[in-house]
Amino acid sequence: MKGIKRDNLRLLLFPILASLFLLIVSVTTSPLSKSEGGDSTIYKLLGLGILHGKVPYVDLFDNKGTYLYLINALGQWLLPGRWGIFILQSISLSITLFILYFTAKVFCRPKSAFLSVVISLFLLAGCYQGGNHVEEYMLPFLALGFLLAVKFFVEQTDKKTGIWWYSLIWGLCFGMVFMLRPNDAVAFFLGIMIGLFAWLLYHKKWQAVLINGSLFFTGALFAVVPIVIGYICMGGGLNDLWFGMIEVNSKVSGGFQGQFFTLFKWGKWAILLLMLTLCVMVGNTNYNHLFWFVIPVCSLQLLFVGEKMYAHYLIPFFPLIMLFIVMLFCQNNRSVIMLAIAILCLSHRPLPRSAVLNIISSIKHMPFESHQPEVSTRCPIPEDEKSSVWNHSADPWRKGVPMAWLVNNGIVQCNRKIDSSNDYVEEIDFDEADPLWVISYGNEFEKASSSLDYSLNAVVTTTYYTLNLYKKN
């Protein structure tokens, strides 16, 4: 009875841990932070655009999946500003922690399982770059797929119905992640299915391969088809959806050839070393059946992690990181334990060091840091003119970017392109847009376009930035 109460208490702690974690490291959505900019602001803008009737990939552009923009739209619909999205982040991470806890309990006692999840959550802090990244929202689906894979290959069940349900759920999770970021879905769930098919073929279950493959495909359709239909109803076309999600995403990630050549970079060799160490630890336990899916999942994730190797690209490794920590608790050989800890701490971008540095950096964005008093940021643009605002300084990575101020005031910029550092989508011509208002970081617009018929109407000043607002004469 006491054991059940303690287990329930641990489960109640996960939402608290998730919220505290995000309050610190998710600086672009945390209510305790004033940080703006980055990819998070792009996603907020796409979500706000949906609430204003804009069509992703047509009226506003970015190369992530549609579910991400719907999540940001839902967050701003629930509570404008930071709170709505922060709540959705907390729910997503709490569910992930619940699932990973039950996964860890397959291998060790509840106390060790809880500690494994907490340590893994700390290491996850080294992967965050501001928060509200697409990888965060796929974690519950990755964790659920991982739990089912662990249960199946550890228990080695012969119950056909159990396998079939698993395949259907794997397909559903694959579809959800695919509509967030396709390459992560391919890396994780196809790795699991390759392991399943190899196991079935090894046991000469030929018919089961076809059945489970069909169920996986069916589950994927359940997640993908509603989005496709909804997108067409919004006014978009299949070619827009394909271009925005698949073609551009492939170019940004380097394509298959680019992904292959990144295998020769030290960053991927370091990840490979971690994954090989994980396999050594698994082989040093009684859970050798995990090799059926751990090896293909690790291999594909290593291949598809992303050409530029941003830290947040490692967030989908969270279930494998948790398994890495759990396997430490399952080891009897001290030499293996010391080797694993050394590799975790000394590899390229070591997660413990990155986590500490990121937490310290995030805390610096908290409001108790000494700042000058902030001037009012009331929006001077009338409601009936908010649909005609041009963002002259569209770079989302500038501190205090105009894009963040626009989103916070419920304004969707009339520029089609939202990231001026990339050239894969043409921005609509300024003359074609013919905006009533132009918002500029300082006097950048005035310097670049002194001949245009606009005059300075208002200046918005805060501790973090000064924005000039120009109105057409």
Produce the secondary structure layout.
Blueprint: H1 2-25, H2 39-51, H3 66-78, H4 83-104, H5 110-124, H6 134-155, H7 160-178, H8 182-202, H9 206-234, H10 238-252, H11 255-261, H12 266-283, H13 291-304, H14 318-329, H15 334-346, H16 351-363, E1 389-391, H17 402-408, H18 430-433, E2 437-441, H19 444-448, E3 454-461, E4 466-472
Parallel strand pairs: 1-2
Antiparallel strand pairs: 2-4, 3-4
Helix pairs in contact: 1-4, 1-5, 2-3, 2-17, 3-4, 4-5, 4-6, 5-14, 6-7, 6-8, 7-8, 7-9, 8-9, 8-13, 12-13, 12-14, 12-15
Short description:
The chain is mainly α. Helices cover 60% and strands 5% of the residues. The termini are far apart.
List SSEs in N-to-C order: HHHHHHHHHHHHHHHHEHHEHEE
Q: Shape, please?
A: globular
Helix content: 55-70%
* Residue fraction in strands: under 5%
Rg measurement, Å: 24 Å
Q: Structural class given helices, strands, pairing?
A: mainly alpha
Main sheet record? 4 strands, mixed
Helix segment tally? 19
Mean pLDDT: 84
Number of spatially distinct domains: 2
Stretches where pLDDT is under 50 for at least 5 consecutive residues are 369-376
Count the beta strands.
Answer: 4
**Strand arrangement, largest sheet?**
1-2-4-3
Instruction: Tell me the distance between the termini.
Output: 75 Å
